[in-house]
Specification:
- The structure is a single chain.
- By secondary structure, this protein is an alpha/beta fold.
- The chain has two domains: 130 residues, eRF1 domain 2 (Nucleotidyltransferase, domain 5); 139 residues, Serine Threonine Protein Phosphatase 5, Tetratricopeptide repeat (Alpha Horseshoe), CATH 1.25.40.
- The chain is 41% helix and 13% strand.
- The chain is built from 13 helices and eight strands.
- The strands form two sheets. It has a five-stranded mixed β-sheet. A three-stranded antiparallel β-sheet has the order 1-2-8.
- A hairpin with a 6-residue loop joins β4 and β5.
- The longest helix has 26 residues.
- The radius of gyration is 26 Å and the shape is elongated.
- The protein starts with 15 loop residues before the first strand and ends in a 12-residue tail after the last helix.
- Pfam families: bVLRF1.
- It is found in: Cytoplasm.
- Belongs to the ANKZF1/VMS1 family.
- Its main location: cytoplasm.
- One of its GO terms (cellular component) is cytoplasm.
Length: 360
């Protein structure tokens, strides 16, 4: 457990994050569900995992649907200690016909049978019971690292989130969905879900590499098609209209930056080739681009993943160049783009470039 990991990958487009582990052969990867990590910890998951050993936090799990509710506050320790739990059921679903009474009222008008009146009463009682419970768990919810919610439909979700003075506000960063199918909201089901979420997966390295490559290739193809729609064919990418007050390098910079913003990787390559420029060209004026002196720095700062990938994998841009603050392109990146760099490291391999020198 104390061995240093040789490399790691987080694929944010997947429900599972894959890691290289020194305890596994190179042909295998260790998988952990991404939703286990708080969003604040996703940039450095190993640090988070180590912190849970010394000072384990807790998660809140809430399931609701079909008149059933189950909730658990569970500690992040090996024993999965349950700090609080509650489950209850109200008759709110129309037998045989399915659907809630309120949904039927909205669609067909209000019925006046004894059964419909009972279901309406139970719907309101369920809402009140759930919200009373959430209020009693407010301290747990506010200190939780993750809140997993599975709510069948928008109306059920509104019972849990975003109502007036709710313990869980709308757009709470701690709220996570369960990344796989679940069954009826019961305590045994929540226990099963937690065991799955906290389990590890052993995956074949080659298979995961291919999945990531296929995903990136598909995204590149979509970017290319979008670029074709946005720009008329036949445009001469080498054409520039220099202004008298601008230097030649400033003109080159303007054209290259324009292509980066539009994610036009092939245009960047053609422009560099036709003007005999290096992919590591220093952008000018330097007082304007002191923070992003290279194309890779600039593409990283604006989050152009397709351009980043093209500069590194096709044009072999130097990842170790630093800006005036001593930062490489990777160090300049947002957490999401840092994950993308790690994905490229995994896809292209350790021998492709000096990843460690670039702090990837």
């Amino acid at each position: 457990e104390d061995e240093k990991e040789t490399a790691y990958l987080i694929d944010t487009k997947s429900a599972v994050s894959y890691f290289r582990s020194s305890s596994l052969p190179d042909t295998q990867l260790l998988g952990i569900y991404t939703s286990v990590f708080p969003r604040s910890a996703i940039d450095d998951p190993f640090k988070y995992l180590k912190s849970q050993k010394s000072s384990p936090g807790h998660s809140v799990i809430l399931f609701i649907g079909g008149g059933h509710f189950a909730g658990v506050v569970i500690k992040h320790d090996p024993k999965h200690t349950i700090l609080a739990h509650r489950a209850f059921h109200r008759y709110t679903t129309r037998r045989k016909q399915g659907g809630s009474q309120s949904a039927n009222d909205n669609a067909h008008g209000k019925a006046h049978s004894a059964g419909s009146n009972l279901r309406r009463y139970n719907e309101q009682a369920l809402i009140q019971e759930v919200r009373d419970l959430l209020e009693s768990w407010r301290a747990y919810i506010q200190s939780a690292q993750n809140i997993y919610i599975r709510a069948a439909g928008a109306s059920n979700r509104k019972i849990l989130i975003g109502y007036e003075n709710a313990p869980i506000p709308n757009k709470d960063a701690k709220v996570r969905s369960v990344p796989f199918s679940t069954r009826r909201a019961t305590m045994p089901e929540i226990t099963r879900v937690w065991e799955l979420l906290t389990s590890t997966i052993i995956a074949d390295t080659a298979t995961i590499q291919k999945q990531i490559k296929d995903k990136l290739d598909a995204q590149a193809a979509r970017d290319f098609q979008d670029d074709k729609k946005l720009h008329e064919p036949g445009t001469d990418v080498t054409e520039t209209k220099p202004k008298h007050e601008k230097s030649e390098m400033e003109v080159h910079t303007n054209q290259l930056i324009s292509n980066v913003k539009r994610s036009r990787s092939s245009a960047i390559k053609l422009y560099l080739k036709s003007n005999r420029l290096s992919p590591n060209v220093i952008l000018e004026p330097q007082e304007l681009y002191h923070h992003t002196p290279t194309l890779l720095h600039y593409a990283t700062s604006v989050g152009q993943k397709h351009v980043i990938r093209y500069l590194i994998s096709n044009l072999h841009a130097d990842l170790t160049i630093r800006n005036d603050s001593g930062q490489t392109a990777y160090q300049l990146a947002s957490p999401t783009i840092k994950m993308f760099f790690r994905t490229l490291r995994f896809e292209l391999g350790e021998e492709f470039t000096t990843w460690d020198a670039a702090h990837v």
